[in-house]
Structure formats: C-alpha cells, structure tokens
Amino acid sequence: MSKPPRNLLIPFRRDQKNDFASGTGEELERSKVTQVLATEGATPRSSGELPWRTKFGSALHLLRHQRNEEALGELARVYVRDAFRRWVPEAKLIKVIVARVGSASFLRVCFQSARRQSSAGNIKLSASDVVSLKIQ
Questions:
Q1: Can you give the CATH number for the domain in which 39 is found?
Q2: N or C: which end of the chain has fewer CB within 10 A?
Q3: What is the residue range of 104's domain?
Q4: 20-69 tens-digit pLDDT
Q5: Given this model, what pLDDT does residue 128 score?
C-alpha cells in the first residue's frame, strides 16, 4: 500500500522538528487551495508571480484596487472557478461567498475535498473546507 502524498503546508510554519510543517489529506488539500488562490497567475495583463511556473495561480490579483461593485464579486467567482478547474481538480468547488464591507471585498471559498466526497452526493462541509481571502 502506498503512502498518501505529503507536502508543505501554507502558511509556512515550523513544526516540532525545526523544519517546515508538512501534511497530508484534507490539511494538504486546504493548503493547495489557499496557495492557488493567493498566488498571482499569468494573465493577459500580468506575467505571473512564480518565474519558474508563471501560469500557476489565479487571476484574483486583477481585482485589487477596482471599484467594489457587484460585478467584482462575479468576476471573483469566475476566477476562483477557473483556478479550481486548472490547479485543484481533485477538490469540488461548492460556492464562493462575496462580502463587501466598505471598500474591501472578502471571499469565502467553500469546497469539498476529494477524500470527503460521498457517492450519495451529500455535501457535509467542515471548517477545513472553507478558505477566506481579502481582495482589496
């Protein structure tokens, strides 16, 4: 039987062994989602954040310093959906909740990890299945 994949967790932090913390399972999947959404991916208006993999990430950075209108929330939903399809296909995007507070927009991205998806189609979210981000 093979071991489940293990990799670094986001945000980076030290573990008890004086190394960067690593994880598996749902903890790793949540970390993947956070990293994809928080990394600036290449778009027609930007070159991408990671020089060795410019396309990795999402287009959410394009929404910064824009008018905080209803259209901004819809664009955020599209950018999150596209990032999930391309970079985290093993996670099922449930919904993206956009909250506008003053000049800032906040996203709550609800997803279901592949390990928790049931064949009956029942959606049971836990705290590990929600990622929160601030756009502006």
A1: 3.10.450.40
A2: N
A3: 20-134
A4: 888 888 888 888 898 899 999 999 998 999 899 999 999 999 988 888 88
A5: 53
* pTM of the shown model: 0.79
Cα angle value 90/93/98 (rounded, 5°)? 145
Pure H helices in the chain = 25-38, 70-87
Number of domains in the chain: 1
Best CA proximity match to 72, nearest among 134, 120, 22: 134
**Within the chain, what is the greatest distance between any pair of CA atoms?**
52
Measured over the CA atoms of residue 44, residue 50, residue 56 and residue 58, the dihedral's sign is: negative
Is 14 inside a domain boundary? no
